[in-house]
Amino acid sequence: MSISSAEKCKKKFSFEAAFWLTLAHVGALAAIPFFTWPAFAVCMILLFTISPLGVTLTYHRLLTHRSFKVPKWLEYILATIGALSAQGSPLLWVAEHRLHHKYSDTPNDPHSPRDGFFHSHIGHLFYVKDHHCEKVMIRYVPDLNKQAYYRFLHKYNVLIALSALPLLYLAGGWPFLLWGGFMRVTLMLHFTWFVNSATHTWGYRNYETRDQSRNIWWVALLSAGEGWHNNHHAQPNSAAHGQKWWEFDLTYRIIRGLRFLGLATDVITPVTAKSTIKSILISPVAVMAVPNVILPNVSLGLAALDMSSVEPLTVE
Ligand SMILES: [Zn+2]
Ligand SMILES: [Zn+2]
Fold it and tell me: 24: CA distance to ligand 1 center in Å?
């Protein structure tokens, strides 16, 4: 598998990334002696609100894969919640995840365990892309980059992520600041990173995709349903990642709730007939023909396929 020179990322060690990652973990350790039950409750409430709504529902299933639609005003509110997660702007998060799907578990995957578990979990984050690379990554998100609000969230991403800290301090002093801020962010980061590391290493497979994706129940519980990652790689555009009756998927429950309220439409449901899935997986042409693949030039869900036979990225 090859990647054009225009798509190669020049990677370099980032002291800025190292600073923020170290600060988050030191802050989380510092939170332990400040434990109070109210502070712990704030941490859990924010964790299991911002992560499912902002990251898994919005950054991943809505913005990356367009698994459903919501009104634009709601999409922007949800994306702003995602920006509070300290996982980066929607532009770069979505771009990197689309790259992951396009090059899953190949040398061009941004975070494959084939380069080591540590690399896939956190190590790759110490090596951010230079300006040229960022410009390249923007090419993977033409749908978002043309919207001024997403450029705003990208430009002020750090300020937005930090904005919760003074509010938490005013609400409950150091216990709220450390638990609702640093502990919450650190736990949330690791829960998300387990999707990149653990679910490409351990677990079971419902589908014989060509990547190393797996399903793991405890990652699914921690990440609001993202642990059913093999199901997701097999059907990237499906709003539901859990497919067996025991594969609980909190994020899909929320999407169904939004649909019940009339706030979510065009919800893409999984293809359940295994024979149909197999026929999709062996034919890139068949996948390109699957309804609701809304960005035909951006390979959102072709990780399971032989990419050499798929149209290269041509978005400008
Ligand atoms: Zn994956
Ligand atoms: Zn995905």
Answer: 25
Q: Which ligand is nearest to the CA of 114?
A: 1
- The span from the CA of 277 to the CA of 287, in Å, is 10
Cα 17 to ligand 2 centre (Å):
23
Q: What's residue 313's pLDDT?
A: 29
pTM as predicted = 0.83
Burial 81-111, CB ≥16 within 10 A → b, else e: bbbbbbbbbbbbbbbbbbbbbbbbbbebbbb
Query: How many angstroms is it from 206 CA to the middle of ligand 1?
Result: 14
227 alpha carbon to ligand 1 midpoint, in Å?
10
CA of 230 to the centre of ligand 1 (A): 8
Q: Summarize pLDDT for 77-112 with one digit per residue, the tens.
A: 999 999 999 999 999 899 989 989 999 999 888 899
Ligand of minimum distance to the alpha carbon of 219: 1
User: For residues 177 and 192, what is the distance between their CA atoms, to the nearest angstrom?
Assistant: 22
Starting from the CA of residue 104, give the closest ligand: 1
Residues 6+ apart with CB under 8 A from 113: 105, 119, 120, 197, 200, 201, 212
Summarised one tens digit per residue, pLDDT across range 296-314 is: 333 344 333 333 332 322 2
Q: What are the Cα distances from residue 45, in Å, to 38, 51, 190, 248?
A: 10, 10, 17, 20
CA angle 103, 107, 109 (to 5 degrees): 40
* Rounded Cα–Cα distance for residues 251 and 61 (Å): 9
Q: How much distance in Å is there from the Cα of 258 to the middle of ligand 2?
A: 20
Residues of the chain with pLDDT under 50: 1-7, 130-132, 273, 275-316
pLDDT at position 118: 95
